[in-house]
C-alpha cells in the first residue's frame, strides 16, 4: 500500500473510549506526512540527477562515436596525405579517449554520489520506521499497564468501602 503525505495527513482514526489524544495523533500524522513529503522530494531530485547524468553520458558516447567516424572519413578522403591524417587521427582519438575517460569518471562519481544519497535516504527511512515502531510499541505497553492497573483500583475501592 503506497501512502502519500496527503493520505497520512488526512487519515482519520476511529474513536474509542480509551483512544489516543486526537491532537497528538493529528500532530504526529502531520509530522510523518511532512517527513514523507521531504523524502519524496529528495528521492525525486536524486532520480532526476541520475537521469541527467545518464543523458549526458549517452551524449558524450555519441560524440566519441561521431569523432571516430569523422576521423575515418577524413582518412579516406585524403589518401595523398596519409601520414598527416594518421597523426591527426591518433591525436584526436587520444584526446577523445582522454575526454571520454574524464566524462565517464565524472559520470561514475555522480552516480556514486547519487547512490550514496539513496543509501542515506534508505537509512533515514529505516530509522524513521524503527522510531515509529518503537512509539507504537511503547503506547501499547502503556495501555497494557493502564489495563492491568484498573482491577487494582477497583479492588482497593471495594476494600475501602467495607
Structure explained in plain terms:
Helix content is 88%, strand content 0%. The protein has 162 residues and is mostly helical. The chain is rod-shaped and about 120 Å long. The model has no long low-confidence stretch (mean pLDDT 85).
How far apart, in Å, are the first and last alpha carbons? Answer: 56 Å
Give the tally of β-strands: 0
- Poorly predicted spans: none
Helix and strand composition category = mainly alpha
Shape: rod-shaped
Beta-strand residue fraction: under 5%
Query: Quick one: biggest sheet?
Result: none
Percentage of residues assigned to helices: over 70%
Task: Give a topology summary.
Elements: H1 5-10, H2 22-77, H3 82-161
Helix pairs in contact: 2-3
Defining traits:
mainly alpha; 3 helices; rod-shaped
Characterize this entry briefly.
With 162 residues, this protein is mostly helical. It has helices at 5-10, 22-77, 82-161. The chain contains three helices and no strands.
Amino acid at each position: 500500500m503506497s501512502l502519500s503525505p496527503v493520505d497520512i495527513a488526512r487519515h482519520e482514526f476511529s474513536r474509542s473510549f480509551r483512544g489516543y489524544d486526537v491532537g497528538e495523533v493529528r500532530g504526529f500524522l502531520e509530522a510523518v506526512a511532512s517527513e514523507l513529503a521531504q523524502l519524496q522530494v529528495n528521492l525525486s531530485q536524486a532520480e532526476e540527477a541520475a537521469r541527467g547524468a545518464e543523458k549526458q553520458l549517452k551524449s558524450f558516447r555519441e560524440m566519441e562515436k561521431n569523432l571516430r567516424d569523422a576521423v575515418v572519413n577524413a582518412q579516406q578522403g585524403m589518401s595523398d596525405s596519409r601520414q598527416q591524417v594518421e597523426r591527426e587521427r591518433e591525436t584526436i582519438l587520444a584526446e577523445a579517449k582522454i575526454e571520454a575517460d574524464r566524462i565517464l569518471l565524472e559520470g561514475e562519481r555522480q552516480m556514486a554520489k547519487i547512490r550514496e544519497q539513496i543509501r542515506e535516504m534508505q537509512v533515514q527511512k529505516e530509522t524513521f520506521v524503527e522510531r515509529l515502531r518503537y512509539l507504537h510499541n511503547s503506547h501499547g505497553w502503556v495501555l497494557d499497564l493502564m489495563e492491568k492497573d484498573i482491577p487494582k483500583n477497583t479492588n482497593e475501592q471495594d476494600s475501602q468501602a467495607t
